[in-house]
Every structure is written in C-alpha cells, then in structure tokens.
Amino acid sequence: MVNLPNLHVFCSIRSLISSRFYWPVGIQDLHFFSIEFKRYSQSRTMFQSTVMSFALSNEAEQQENAEAYEAYSLLPMTPYIHKALERCPEMFRSGDIFALRDYVRQHPPQMVYDRYKEQVGRDELDPPKCNERAAKLRQEGNTLYGKKDYLGALLKYNESICWACGDSEDLGIAFANRSAVYYDSKEYEFALLNIRLARQNNYPARLFPKLEVRELNCRMKIESGERVIPEVLKKGMNLESNLSIPCLAKGVGTGEFPRYGRGMKAEQDFKVGDVILREGPAMVNVDTRRKFQACHHCASDNVYSLIPCPHCVFVMYCNEECLTNGWKECHRFECGIKDRLNMVPHGIFIPGLTWLFYGLTQFNDSVDDMMNYCKENDRNGNDPLSLEYTNPLDIFKLFHTAKVKLLSPQVHTYNRFILAILYDIYLEHPLVGSLFVGENQRNFLLQAMDDYMTMATRMSIGVRHEYKTELYSIASLCNHSCNPNAHVLYSSGQIKIVVVSPIQKGEQICISYGYVKDEVSDARFFAQMGVFDFTCICQVCAPNSSQKKLSKNRRQPHHSFHSDLRVLNEIIENENSIASDRINALQQLIQRYAKGHPPGEYAKLLRKYRTILQKLFEDEVLVELIKKLN
Ligand SMILES: C[S@@+](CC[C@H](N)C(=O)[O-])C[C@H]1O[C@@H](n2cnc3c(N)ncnc32)[C@H](O)[C@@H]1O
Question: What Pfam family does this protein match (any one) (predicted)?
Fold first, then answer.
C-alpha cells in the first residue's frame, strides 16, 4: 500500500471526523428511533423490527442502541412532539400537513428553543459575530496547541474564525495560528495557504515578522524536497466515459425493474474493478455537530482551509468558489436562522429543503415561475441520463420529476411535523418571507417542502458519513441490494462506484445503502436500513428469494480456489509487492470465483478488497486536494 508521509495529522483528522464526538449516535439513527411515536401509530411494523433487533443484538450493541434512545430523549424537540401527540392524536393519524402547520402556529415551540439554548449554553439563538468570543476561542486553541493537541487546536481556531468579525484582526490572527499548526505538522502547503489567508484578513502589521519567518521556512522546506507528495495509485475511470456525462462510464444505462422502479442497468459486460461512476454531491447537509469541520457546499472533510460565512457563525466553506456557490444556491435563504434550523432533528430528508432553494435560484427567485413549472411538471418520471448535466436547471428537473414511492404513513407524518416547525423558521428569514407572499405562495412553499422531503428520503443512497447527508444526481439511480455487485467508496463527499462482482449485459447494477448484510448484526442492519423506509426486495431478502436458488446453483468450490488463494496471500504479504500488483491479484481472484466459491473465504476476500479500495480512494482524494494548493 502507498503510505502518505507526513499526513499523520490528516489521518487523525479523518479518524476524528468519523468518531462519535458529541452525541453517542448519528442524528439519522435518532430519526429512526423517533418511532417512540409507535404508541400513537396504527402501524407497528417499524417498532417491532426495532424490538426484534434489540432482542437479537449482543450486549455491546444493546448498549449502543440504548444510548440512541437516551440521546433521542435528550433532543430538545422530543417533549414537544410527545406533548403534541398527547394533545392531538387525530392530527397525527390524519397526517394533514396544514393541520400540523396550524398546530405549530397555535403552540409555538418555545420550550424547544429554551431546552436547546440550555444545552448549547447560550442565552441567544443565531448570535452575531463577536470578536471577544473569537479571542477567547483562539486562546483555548492556543492552550491546546501548547499541549500539541493539534486537532483540538484546529477546531478551536476554526470556531474562532467563524466568530471573528470580517474587519477584525482576530480573523487574521486565527488564520495565522492555524498556519502554525500546519507548520509544526510539516504540512507546508497548508501552512502557506493559511499565511495567505491571514494576510488577506487584517493580520496586524506589528506581527508580520513572525509570519514572514514561518513563510520563508515553509518555502525552504518545500524547495529542499523535505516534503514529497507521493504518487498514489489512482483507480480512476478505467473505462471510456459517457460522452455527455463524463463522470459515468460508457455502457451504463437505466431501466425499469419490477417493484424497484428505475435502476441502473448494464448495457455491456463489466468486470471486477471497473470504475463505473465518480461523482460529487448535488446537495449537502452538514450536521450541526460538524459545522466547523466540513464544507457546507461540497461536503469535503476539511479542517485546514475552511473559510467562514462572512455573516453568520455557523457555516464554513473550503474555498471562495464553494462560498460563492453555496451562498447563491442555498445559504442566503438560511443565513441568520441556521441556529434555529439546527435545533430541529435532521433526517436524511434535509437536503430536500436545500433542494427547494436551489430550485428557486434556477428560476431567478421567481416563486411564480417555479410554481408554474412545478404545476406543469409533476412526478411522472424521467430518463436522468438524457438530461444536460452542465445545466443547473436540468439538475433541478432531474430530482423534481423523479417518480418516487410514498413514504409509510408514520414516517411521513413524523417528518411533516418536523417540516411544519422548519416552515415557520424559514418564513422568519427576511428573504424567504419577502419572496413567498400570500396564501397561495406560502401553501406552495409548505407543499414543496413536503414533496422534496419525500424525494430526498427516496433518492438517498445511504448515509456514508455519520455527520453529513448528501444527494447524488446519478448514483441516486442505483437500487440497494444486500448482496451488491457494485460498491460505493466514499471520501470527503466524493463517491466512486466500483464493480465487485462480474456484471453481465442487461443485469441491474446494485449497491448497498449501508452495511452489507451478514457482515453486521441484524440490529445494526435494521437500524441502518430503517431510515430509508422501504422493505428490501433484493435477492437476499425477498420471500422466495433467488438467494436460495443461488445457493443451490452455486457450483462446488473450484478445486483450485485454495491454491490460488495461497498465491494471492503471498503477493499481498510480500513487502516488495506494489499496490497495483496486490489489487490486480485480488480482482482476478474475485472475478474468477464470483460464481462458485466457498462462502466464508470469499466474503473475507471481498472485505479485504473493499478495504484496500477505500484506503486508495481516501489517499487519492487527499492528494488531489494537496496538489490543488500547489
Ligand atoms: C435511490 S432510489 C433508487 C432509484 C429508484 N428506484 C427510482 O425509481 O428512482 C431508492 C428507492 O428505490 C427503491 N429501492 C431501492 N432498492 C430497493 C430494494 N432493495 N428493495 C425495494 N425497493 C428498493 C426504494 O423505493 C428506495 O426508496
């Protein structure tokens, strides 16, 4: 494997980013556990599956889920929902969105605000920037830096950067302090970038000599070759690209599959290792717990070059381009109310709301034009691959016209209640309030929020990162299988889909939306899958599943499997093997024995293959980023 020298900080940053940091569970899980709601609901299916999964899980997993329940009870929103359920069970049974909106109007969620303020230790929501607070956070960062806790220091500096006023020297000093962390970590490109940011943001002239010395040292270190950016093995697109959609391989099409709806279809044979898609997100939501760690526009996990929204203290972007686009397409509709929006539990549907405002931007903020378009184009399906992907309006059409199945009544009603609260918060925003005027337009807003909430839930291909939710234009065509023939690699918002079992022309291309079944406990699997709100009909799960046929049909393990496996292990364990040899050997073995193999050994092989691919992809994304800085 290729080891990236001097990237220890980023490796630890990555582990920090994926660790459970503030809350014991992801909010997406909490969304699932919101089925406390069960007591008032007609259908008990979801609750029963939770209880079953609890019963089936081991002690450690029970503990983990118990924490999820506890976290759920701590959410500021929980008592408010329970009170509403007690007061108006009928309203929840009918699920009428206008009735839910009226309820929220009549019973403003003041208790939610109070509980939230108490939890975050502030007496004001959506506070303005404040240099005093920025200086305090910077001091806290300095203390951590002094103890060589670089990650802790970076997070404090990022927070300080957010709080500092745009014309203050506090902003410049925080950037300069971030450069010191990178200098000490031998990350000279990032140190230089932060020195530049410090200069552009009022770094005080009296401190210039200190910064100049650091800058000179960085340049000397880079010139002396001390810092080498290694070449990583790029498993880029190894196939010809689709002419109009370059991120997609030629030979990938769409088809209708009974009970799945649309899906991705192979128009030619594919072999193990073929990269069929490399895509960035169309829509992003960064969970509030990671607001100082990831770009709110492209979802890149990024603690080193983030710049703040110039107006609020809760949103950061990885560069000026993301800031400009993020502002135009989404943040200008939420800047100033972000704190209140953050207070509401976030499900996988949240990017749907971002979507609504992205759409409005495409209609030049004309609510009437958007309403007319929506009236004329309902969800009657489309061929996503025929759209023009460079045209932002076509991207809007892609999700707007997608034919999606309804959500189950209890999930839908719960989400609608959350939407009713979000709706009121959005209308408090001066821009939103001034664009949506009159009953017609406001009803349209509420209904569009509802529609895109369903769309985003249905178009989700899984929660790849505990603290971020993304929507992908092309990948959202892929259906789920518990025994998928393709695998999604994820790094910093980017995804790559790689074939992991030979695919024949005409076959459906499926990925897993979460954990691969059989590799995790049933409890974990159901908790993960519960958020998608569909009953899986893949060959493994469906009644009369073809899995049974598969096992019957499975040929006896080929006699040479074990001898081939020994050769493979020799290649993998040989210190002199290069990454490409290892990966090629693995691919060949998986391709050769995909249709006839001893199950246990083969599953291990697949896991190893996926792990190596994932590591390579993470290195690839990271090195791309470093190279962009040069
Ligand atoms: C990301 S979309 C996939 C494309 C979708 N079939 C379409 O027509 O646009 C996910 C939705 O497809 C359906 N789906 C995907 N995998 C499925 C499976 N294994 N079993 C049943 N439905 C599935 C569900 O309705 C799910 O919410």
Answer: zf-MYND
